[in-house]
Amino acid sequence: MEKVLITGSAGHLGEALAWTLSRQGKSVIGIDINASPYTTHLGSVTDAQFIAQAMHGVDTVFHVATLHKPHVVTHSKQHFIDTNVSGTQVLLDAAVAQGVTAFIFTSTTSAYGHAMQPEDNGPAAWVTEQLVPISKNIYGATKLAAENLCRLQHEQQELPCVVLRTSRFFPEEDDKASIRAQFSNTNAKANEFLNRRVELEDVVTAHLCAAEKAAEIGFGTYIISATSPFTQGDLTELHRHAPEVVAGYYPDFGSIYQRLGWRMFVQLDRVYVNALAREELNWQPRFDFRAMLDGLAQDGNLPESNVSRFVGSKAYHDEEFEDGPFPV
Known about the structure:
Layout: E1 3-7, H1 12-23, E2 27-32, E3 41-42, H2 48-54, E4 60-63, H3 77-98, E5 102-108, E6 125-127, H4 138-157, E7 161-166, H5 177-182, H6 185-192, H7 200-217, E8 219-224, H8 235-238, H9 242-249, H10 253-260, E9 270-272, H11 275-280, H12 289-299, H13 306-311
Parallel strand pairs: 1-2, 1-4, 2-3, 4-5, 5-7, 6-9, 7-8
């Protein structure tokens, strides 16, 4: 029986992976600092002895555990370095010692940072794996550092490593108060499927595809986001009059949104491009903006995968803040 290790097993993606792989008959080792139905080993990724013991007999590692953007205000920079950077190296070393055949690292499109910020009157950013990241906070900086550690481990130790830069998949409200004030949670998330969101099931399948292809790839970095309809020729107008561009691709979107009392964002400042992941990982995401519209037209609800319904919502913090769910 194949044995897999999942860090962050109490979080959104960690639990989704554990639920999926368990149903496939895999032996799942779940690591987290928090107890959960899929956490089999309670402890920190920074504890080398603990990780070495948990790694025994493991074939594939899914390193999902991380401090996220919502933790930037509540945790120190050193805490980010310890968890996101040092913890990754601990796992990489243990994976080499065990002879792991695939190491899948969950990174983030937030790593691109300032590189995604368009000029005031310029085109929206076209975000591919070739865009050079420019970190804008400690979250992005530490995820990039961890990506580089994965690359080094492959080059120096021949550990097959695949880095997946995932876009938004959390069900919680947006971390920007301005978005929460102007759009309902479902309206905002439907809009984001055009350019910067992905459904949890599609993130899970991307990880499974990456694990299957890791030995063949050796090392690779891929953007994991819903398939966008846009081309580079749309970027200028997307950053000026997004609803008009969207209507050109989806003639029914206006009537569906009007019936719901929804609005499209006036501007889209970026487009995440998933073409490389679909080509090289043989990844076939199911959920995109067309799927959102079809679900809304049918019953007024956004379509949702079984794994999303199972995992549900998980808070990043144990407290509520004055400005809402996030202190940022």
